[in-house]
Amino acid sequence: MRSDLTAFLMMQYKNNQSVLVVIYAKDTNRVLMLQRQDAPDFWQSVTGTIESGETPKNTAIRELWEEVRLEISENSTALFDCKESIEFEIFPHFRYKYAPNVMHCREHWFLLVMEQEFEPVLSEHLAYQWVSPEQAIQMTKSSNNAEAIRKYILKDK
After folding, report:
1. Which end of the chain is more exposed for a tag (fewer CB within 10 A), N or C?
2. What does the buried/exposed string (b/e) look like for 76-96 if buried means 16 or more CB atoms within 10 Å of the residue's CB?
3. What's the predicted TM-score (pTM) here?
C-alpha cells in the first residue's frame, strides 16, 4: 500500500527530465522565441517534460505539436538530436512543480532547422517572436537555452 501511495504522490509532480528544441529558420537566420504564460518576462525555445514511456525525441516531437502546432515525423531530418544533455538547477519559483528536494533537471537538446519562418499557433504561450540568435540569447533567462543557441546556431558565424 505504501508503494501505491508513493507512486500516486509522484504522479502529482513533474518529471525532472526534459527537452529543449531550438527552432531556426534558414531563410532569415532567425530563432523562434516563446513568451511563457506563467512568467511573462521569460522567453524561451520550445521545452517540455519527458512523460512516462517517452524517449527524448518523442517528447520533442510532441512538444513541437503542443506548443506551436508544428507536426514533425519521427524520421524527419529537420529535427536534429544534438546528443547532448545538461543538468541545471531549477529556478526557485518553478520548484513547486517538482517533488520535494528535487533541485535539478536534466535537459536533452534538439535543433529544428526550418527552410523558412512559419506562424506558430500558440496554446501554452502568450506570444512569439522570430529574432536573431544574438537577440534570442539576450531575451532568454535560461542560460542553457542561450548556450544551445550559441553552440548550435552561432557556431558557424
Report:
1. N
2. eeebbeeeeeeeeebeeeeee
3. 0.87
Q: All 3 cell numbers of residue 92?
A: 526557485
What are the CA-CA distances from residue 57 to residues 34, 78, 108 (Å)? 20, 12, 9
Q: Which residues are CB-contacts of 150 (< 8 A; sequence separation ≥ 6)?
A: 133, 137
Q: Assign 99 to helix, strand or coil.
A: coil
Instruction: Supply 135's cell numbers.
Output: 537577440
pLDDT digits (tens, 9 = 90+) for 126-141: 999 999 999 999 999 9
Q: Residue 30: how many CB atoms within 10 A of its CB? A: 19
Q: Could you read off the pLDDT of 81-126 as tens digits, one per residue?
A: 999 999 998 888 888 888 888 999 999 999 999 999 999 999 999 9
